[in-house]
Write a structure and sequence with these properties.
The protein is mainly alpha-helical. The protein has one domain. It has 2 helices and no strands. The longest helix has about 45 residues. The chain is rod-shaped.
Length: about 80
Amino acid sequence: MSLDGLHHALAAVHAGLSDANAQLTSATRLLEQARRAMRDAQLAHAGGEPWLPKQLDAALDELERQRGVIADAGDLLDTYQARL
């Protein structure tokens, strides 16, 4: 693979990382909206302390972990590109 081809391939990987990050942002926003909707519905009907499933927090934590993985991959990619 030529150097130009390698730069093109790395740019495609960067674009993929950006797309993945955008999907994580969207998923996080949707889960946070779901959390608010569940909490608000429970407060409106029960009047007590809302109960939220543990899986909701676990999913948000996993999305944050994945965001870190993507950021680390982007940093490694930037370092590699700088060395070319």
